Amino acid sequence: ACSEFSQRSCEECLKNVSCLWCYTNNTCIDYPVRSILPPSSLCGLSNARWGVCWINFEDLIIAVAVIAGLILVSVTVCCCYCCYCRKRSRSTPDEEEEQLARKREERRLQSLQRKHERKLKHDEIRKKYGLLQDSDNPYSRFENE
Which terms are listed as keywords in the entry (predicted)? Predict the structure, then answer.
């Protein structure tokens, strides 16, 4: 069916996806499906057109290969970068987390210190008014005098 479009125009030939246009002799031929690239005996790659008329088959292959390579490289770089960032974030805690832990520990120590000071002050007041119990017998009965 593609040979019917020979000696016409490239656009008419390439309306059918299974056709290949050759500029050397202006022929429309069936695309050789068994081989990925059309053999040079059929038509040279620089003169063959498939899909669109404005780019030859050789340039089309190069463009597709470059685009596929760029996509492959960018996906690889993104994957490596993401894996590196995850690994880095797991191995070392953030500075903010370290600062929060230090502040939390400082507050805990200050709280314990204030608690101890309060206890000493309360013990002084109890001692002053005679309310401090004997440490030997803490369960002794309170006597009223």
Answer: Coiled coil, Membrane, Transmembrane, Transmembrane helix
